[in-house]
Design goal:
The complex is a heterodimer of chains A (about 260) and B (about 240).
Chain A: E1 5-16, E2 19-30, E3 34-38, H1 45-51, E4 62-70, E5 73-74, H2 80-86, E6 87-90, H3 101-111, H4 117-130, H5 134-137, H6 150-162, E7 168-172, H7 180-193, E8 198-202, H8 206-212, E9 215-221, E10 229-236, H9 237-242, H10 247-253
Parallel strand pairs in A: 3-8, 3-9, 6-7, 7-8
Antiparallel strand pairs in A: 1-2, 1-4, 4-5, 9-10
Helix pairs in contact in A: 3-4, 3-6, 4-6, 6-7
Chain B: H1 4-37, H2 40-71, H3 75-108, H4 119-140, H5 143-148, H6 153-173, H7 178-210, H8 228-233
The chains are: A alpha/beta (about 260), B mainly alpha (about 240).
Chain lengths: ~260, ~240
């Protein structure tokens, strides 16, 4: 497997006011692979993930330093609407809009100016098929998305993210609110999707990271005084879970941390 | 956040490996002593001990699988448990070599024997001592000790060659002892194979400690014995 970086992060710092939440983060996210970000609560996993589509811009007093590039282009000077089309995101709790299944998936393309009904139909079907939800909802596209089960809602959110044909999909604990069967379905789905996408997943569930990802980034606080998050080890997932280099990673993956 | 249940179980399973190893070590020494002293009762006890070894091995492997299923071990813990599964099988096979020697004793019965190759018990002590120190290295997960022990296998191989040559000389002098000599050679061969498997155990210890899978017998055991025909014609 050749390693081609999709996202490059170098000497990246993120501050909330005076507080340094991410300190000296250096990582390359490989294209066409699934990268898991693991680490204890409050170590900045989600903050790092939200960097990649500039969701942190929405928080007041946030300031960043350092380099974050996608395909070699600086994301902070990019058009943020276009960036978020290229870099989709799925959250911990399924958050379908209070509208029909169809309208949920068509929302993004419509926002980007697609008006043609046939074109929208095609996008909705393709996105739902890619999210392995089509067969379950094809006869009820006009029903409210809120009537779906939790697992279906989460796959709908993935379909919604896919509808604008992103290059990167960010997932923040996408299965933590789901039952095991729905969780396995999402994991299967991610393995399918990586054929066309670069996937970054934040998870507390180490078994999930081990099952689903190709590469794993281990994050940790720099020190009790600083309490800044940083990436302490990045490697192939098999290495992280069988023979990590950093003793802190070993402590974390064997469950002896803290 | 210490993992009390996992840590307790890991320690218990390591101790069970040690118990299994000590049983196997005892079996080898007893089987050779029974052979030397024509002690048929002792040979019987080795067969009984082998049944205990087998049962212990299955219980150990079962407990290991249960721990993997219930505690989801990772990294070094996972390497340890995967290695215990393999070490348990190796030790059981090593026990079978001792059982083989006990069977030879029972087959030979209490007939008086004309000659006893003194290198056989020396060879068995050496092999048992290698196992003993390997078990210590397993308990302390000491890769350096585990890497050093397989180098001593040459000594066991050298003893085997000496036993072989001695037996050939004996047969040439008195062809009527060929059957007895053949059984002795089998016993020596079992000890030689027993020592070879110590190397496999050492490889697992290196893996537990470092995560590296490394062959420790860099070259094949130099048991280069000429064919009996060649020996006989050379007049040994």
């Amino acid at each position: 497997m050749d390693f081609r970086p999709k996202i490059t992060v170098e000497r990246y710092y993120l501050y909330y006011g005076d507080f340094c939440a991410l300190r000296d983060v250096n990582i390359q996210i490989p294209a066409g692979q699934i990268t898991a970000i693991i680490g204890p609560s409050g170590c900045g996993k989600s903050t790092l993930l939200r960097t990649f589509n500039r969701m942190n811009d929405l928080i007041p007093n946030v300031r960043v330093e350092g380099k974050v590039e996608i395909d070699g282009a600086d994301i902070f000077s990019a058009d943020v609407v276009e960036l978020r089309r290229r870099v989709g995101m799925v959250f911990q709790r399924p958050n379908p809009f209070p509208m029909s299944i169809y309208d949920n998936v068509a929302y993004g393309p419509r926002a980007h100016g697609v008006r043609n009904r046939a074109k929208l139909d095609e996008i909705v079907e393709r996105s739902l098929r890619d999210a392995v939800l089509w067969d379950e909802v094809k006869d009820t596209l006009n029903k409210s998305a809120l009537a779906l089960s939790g697992g279906q809602q989460q796959r709908l959110c993935i379909a919604r993210a896919l509808s604008v044909q992103p290059e990167v999909l960010l997932l923040d604990e996408p299965a933590s609110a789901l039952d095991p069967i729905s969780t396995f379905k999402i994991e299967e789905l991610l393995r399918e999707l990586k054929k066309h996408l670069t996937i970054v997943i934040v998870t507390h569930n180490m078994q999930q990271a081990a099952r689903v990802s190709d590469y794993t980034a281990m994050m940790m606080l720099t020190s009790e005084e600083e309490r800044s998050g940083t990436v302490i080890e990045f490697d192939r997932t098999v290495t992280i879970f069988t023979n990590p280099r950093d003793p802190r990673t070993e402590d974390y993956v064997t469950g002896r941390f803290g | 956040m210490p993992r009390k249940v996992l840590d307790q179980e890991l320690h218990r399973l390591k101790t069970e490996v040690l118990v299994l190893g000590v049983m196997v070590e005892r079996s080898l020494l007893d089987s050779v002593e029974a052979l030397q002293k024509r002690d048929l009762q002792k040979a019987q006890r080795v067969l009984e001990l082998d049944r205990k070894v087998n049962a212990h091995r299955f219980a150990l492997q079962n407990d290991t699988i249960v721990l993997i299923a219930t505690q989801q071990p990772m990294a070094r813990d996972l390497r340890l448990l995967a290695s215990i599964l393999e070490i348990a099988s190796e030790l059981e096979r090593m026990g079978d070599y001792a059982k083989g020697i006990a069977r030879i004793t029972l087959r030979l019965g209490d007939r008086p024997l004309a000659w006893w190759p003194i290198d056989i018990p020396v060879m068995a002590s050496k092999a048992a001592d290698m196992l003993h120190r390997t078990l210590s290295a397993f308990m302390s997960e000491d890769a350096a000790v585990a890497r050093a022990i397989p180098q001593e296998d040459d000594e066991v191989d050298a003893f085997y060659v000496r036993v072989y040559r001695g037996l050939i000389t004996w047969i040439v002098q008195d062809p009527s002892v060929v059957e007895q000599a053949n059984w002795y050679l089998w016993a020596a061969h079992n000890i030689e194979r027993f020592a070879d498997r110590v190397t496999n155990l050492c490889e697992r210890i290196v893996f537990i400690a470092t995560g590296e899978i490394q062959e420790l017998d860099v070259y094949e055991s130099p048991v280069c014995i000429e064919s009996p025909a060649q020996n006989a014609s050379a007049g040994e």
